[in-house]
Amino acid sequence: MRTLTFFLLLGIVSFAGAQEPEAKLDQVKPTPRPELMERGWQDKAALETLLKTKVSLNVVDKQLKDVAQQFADQLGIPVRVDELQLERVGLSGEFPVTFRAERWHGYTALKWMLHDLGLTFIPDGDGLLITVYELPKEQRITHYYPIPDLLGEPFDFNPIDDVIKSIITPEHWIEEKHAVMRQIDDGLLISHSVEGHLLVQRLLETLRALKDAPNDPFNTMPLLVTVYPKEEAESALTLHSVGAGLDVNEVPLEEVMADLSKVALLPFHIDKRALDDVGLAADFPITVRTPPIPVDELLDMILLRHELDWFIDGQVVVITSNDEPEAESLIRAYPARDLFWHGLYSADPDIRLAALDYLREVEGIPPPPKTTGFGGFVDPKREVDYRGLRDALMHSIEPESWLESRQGEGRICHFPMGAECLIVAQTHAVHRKLEVALEEIRQQRKLPDRDEVLRKVQQREEENIFQSHYFSAILGPGKTIPLDAAQDIADKIRQSVAPESWGNEDTFIKAEESGLVVRNQRRVQRKVEAYLKKVGLQDPDRQLRTPGGFF
């Protein structure tokens, strides 16, 4: 009776001779309700128009509502002013605006025009609504992001949750005051601002691109996680490839920047609001004398001595203070598959871990320190040292600029799941140092002999080893199941898991009341464990530990 009850609970075998009812399983297909999605489609259409359309403005002391109408005329969508919310902060649609933009993306132009006023915008049906920064929760935008390809097998939300909350506007997730994220099925339901969603979307696109990147050739160029990654990369290349010399004495900042804009053929924008916060104005005097050097280096020379900074937003070079959050949080994804895995990688997780462990054994590469996981310590031989590279970079490159130092705002996360990268939010100056350091590491690293490692791995894979597989998911300490029930499980495995491998005297599967003892090849041992996890007899987080040598 104990055996019968056991198998009825597990639901993995049926008894001969029992009359089973005909299986019936209906698929529940919800009826679409397009009327509920109509507003969401309008919001997306308005935002897409703003992102793709370029606008030109040159207004001086013009009323905000009239400037909004100019945006509307050029975008082809309504742009409204939230008079009620503006009144709360002492503004109105009649507030004077002075702003200039020549063929900027509509998103960039509207963002920086409103930034100078302390305002922002949100999608509003078929158009856009100019409103205040401190939005009530009901004005957040909510989207669902399916991400099964970024969760691994079995699903693990921790890496993507950590990256998003650490890198994308981290202050907004604190106590969920400005942003909320929840796991639903194989995706994330996120409530955030317009820019927050755009950055999340770009981050997911970047991780997928890195996951699909080929191993040979392996592109180590960092990818930009911004609203306009392509345009920003092109602008950065221009600033570094174009040279300029200066010989100015007590010349206003805005004039110097206007001259550099003409040299680089890129628009420059001075963040007057940020400069005002540090007691400076756009016309404060600049004195500098230098021979021709790249424009990006010239900007560093001019601005950093005055505690100012710069960054690129799309195709626009923004001059701001060095404590402006956006200048401190430029997000880059650094491909690091070659660094994490020491130059060898396989789509098969067991092969790549076996190769890594072989290199540790032969070349003396130390494994990461033990970390606490489900059920105790995680075997470091089954772990990649993601933290080692991350910590080395933080402690050697501008250590006081990182959040962990409690003196800076820089943040760095690793993301596995096939993307195998570092996601970094830092200033452009620190990013340049990171690029140089990673390139130096790559240039000095000796690549292993792929063919030799693969031969050794395959040789070990074919060796027969002993392994105990405990029914840890259903048995507590000292608990057992009937021996005949365990034998039925063993017979089932022989039939369904690599059946061709059990027909010789060197392999066997022995049933015990606490689990199974198996002698077979490593690849078969992993399949046995996968089967036991699938039918609920082992904890899904348990890691296979095999005796002797690397695995």
Characterize the structure shown.
This protein is of the alpha+beta class. The chain has 19 helices and 22 strands. The protein has a four-stranded antiparallel beta sheet, sandwiched between helices. A three-stranded mixed beta sheet has the order 2-5-4. A hairpin with a 2-residue loop joins strand 13 and strand 14 (316-321). The radius of gyration is 30 Å and the shape is globular.
Summarize the structure.
The protein has a four-stranded antiparallel beta sheet with strand order 9-15-19-18, with helices on both faces. It is of the alpha+beta class and 551 residues long. The longest helix has 19 residues, at 34-52.
Residue share in helix: 25-40%
Which structural category do the helix and sheet elements fall into?
alpha+beta
Give the N-terminus to C-terminus distance in angstroms: 41 Å
Flag low-confidence runs: 1-18, 371-382, 545-551
What percentage of amino acids are in beta strands? 15-25%
Total number of strands: 22
Q: For the largest sheet, list the strands in their spatial order.
A: 9-15-19-18
The helix tally amounts to 19
Q: Let me know the average pLDDT.
A: 85
Tertiary shape? globular
Q: What Rg is obtained from the alpha carbons, in whole angstroms? A: 30 Å
What can be said about the biggest beta sheet?
4 strands, antiparallel
Helices and strands, with pairings:
Elements: H1 2-10, H2 34-52, E1 54-63, H3 64-75, E2 79-81, H4 83-88, E3 96-105, H5 106-117, E4 119-124, E5 127-132, E6 141-146, H6 158-167, E7 180-184, E8 187-192, H7 194-211, E9 223-224, H8 229-241, E10 243-252, H9 253-264, E11 268-270, H10 272-277, E12 285-294, H11 295-304, E13 308-313, E14 316-321, H12 325-328, E15 330-335, H13 337-340, H14 349-363, E16 371-373, E17 376-378, H15 386-396, E18 411-415, E19 421-426, H16 428-444, H17 450-461, E20 464-470, H18 483-496, E21 508-512, E22 515-521, H19 522-534
Parallel strand pairs: 2-5, 11-14
Antiparallel strand pairs: 1-3, 4-5, 6-8, 7-8, 9-15, 10-12, 13-14, 15-19, 16-17, 18-19, 20-22, 21-22
Helix pairs in contact: 14-17
